[in-house]
Amino acid sequence: MEVLSPFHLLFILMFVATLIPLQQIVSRTGYSRWWVLLIFVPLGNLVGLWLLAFCRWPAVDKPMP
Question: What pTM value is reported for the model?
């Protein structure tokens, strides 16, 4: 059985450190938190960034109570 190397532990730490804040940002815009997984897809991260920047945000468009 192979033990995790420091590189693997660093990768997992960076994965979690990136995923959690981005989930909060995406959910505040009104989109599903699953959109965050696009950052780990090559070129999908650029598409997701452009969609987030130029599409309408459901949280902003809903009427105020």
Answer: 0.68
